[in-house]
Structure formats: structure tokens, C-alpha cells
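Sequence only, no structure available. Ideas?
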Amino acid sequence: QVQLVESGGGLAQAGGSLRLSCSASGGTLSSYTMGWFRQAPGKERTFAATISRGGSSAYYADSVKGRFTISRDNAKNTVYLQMNSLKPEDTAVYYCAATGGSVWLLDRPRNTKDDYAYWGQGTQVTVSS
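Reply:
I predicted one. C-alpha cells follow.
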């Protein structure tokens, strides 16, 4: 069973950048499709990005497309989320998630919470205006 630990969160100004990392242990990262989700105070946890096991395919929520980039280094057992042009509405706890299936599920990418079996504890990102 894979364990996930996020890091890299913190405080940023609007227009700034942060890079989140998700370190995996207890499993071979290349066996898992990986995703990033976020949860703002009082709101549901929502999808941000997902990446295929080999790293060749990535999908994004419309709200982050063009600003965020998901990537992975399977040799280092680490997944990243580069966040640029940050906005106050990006403020949330960011969670890393993993699943053993393909990034593509029937007719859509894995972009819901129920698509993922393993979760990290989250890292806080706060963007000030």
C-alpha cells in the first residue's frame, strides 16, 4: 500500500508561484496514476490535475489549465504540481492521490475523488491579494 506525503505549501502573493511535491513510499510510483485535488474552507474537495503512470498524459481542471503543471519523476518516487500565476481563489489544502488504474477511465480522465484509492494528508496553500 502506497503512502503519500505532500510538501511545498505555504503563503504566496497573487501572481506568484509555488511548487508542491508528493513523495511516495511503500510502492512503485510508476504503477500508479497520480492526481492533485484541493479543498477550500467549507467546500468540497475538487480535482486539479492528473498524470498517467509513465507521465506522457496529463489532464487539468479548467480552473487551473494554463497555470498549473503536473509532472512526475518515477525514479525519485515524486510527483509535482507547479503552480504559476496564483490567484486568491487557489487558496486551499492541496492533496496528492494515487490509484492503480489507467489515467483514462472509460470515456473520461480520472477526475473525481472516487477514482483514487490512496491519499496524502494535504498541504496548505494560501494566496494573498
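The chain is about 0% helix and 50% strand.
Hope that gets you unstuck.
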